[in-house]
Amino acid sequence: VDKLTKVAHFIAGNLKDDSPILARRFVHEIFRLHGVPELIISDRDPIMTLRFWKTLNAALRTKLNFSFAYHPETDGKTKRVNQDLEDMLRMYYMDQQYKWEEYLPLVEFAYNNTYHASLKMTPFEELYERKCRTPVSWDSIEDREVIGPEILTEMEQQVKLIRECLEEVADRQQSYTDLKRVDRKFKLGEKVFLRVKLKKSSITFDKAAKLSP
């Protein structure tokens, strides 16, 4: 996920993939489109912390930073996108019973061409400074029969279904957020308690996981 444009690439992988496989996939799917990034932010997955991956990024002059637990400013957007993708694929698979990895390109297309409130446009528009050209029927609310090869009809149906799943995921998250949101207003000079969640392996405070004013 690009932090500036919010453009995301969804690539199928395997838990058994090692660093060389990950590096080749990076070249095939990311480097060929965007060149060498200045910075990569990742979690502390064992693959990313191996010497091979660090050496590769050093050779490319790409800085490799690792995120911290409970610190969404580092890679919070990526985690949200991953959760959205997981929820959407779960709904999509239950509806279609297809091999989900075969439709990742269409999922990526739909995501990158979905309006983002923070951008006030789609990630595609933010990246390329123009709207993405698509078949007219894909942007039409009305049901319209596509005239052409069968693959176009199938693509249209899948993109519309994926967009419906994206909207459902967004609505569900908004409803969940609204339930947890509490409108609290503080005055200048007021003191508050800050609750800090820590992992067992993290540094703990002597008395409690709270910071007094």
Automatic annotation (TrEMBL):
Per UniProt, what is one GO molecular function of this protein? nucleic acid binding
| Recorded superkingdom | Eukaryota
One of the protein's GO biological processes? DNA integration
Integrase catalytic domain location, by residue? 1-131
Q: What name is this protein filed under?
A: Integrase catalytic domain-containing protein
The taxonomic lineage of its organism, from the top, reads:
Eukaryota, Viridiplantae, Streptophyta, Embryophyta, Tracheophyta
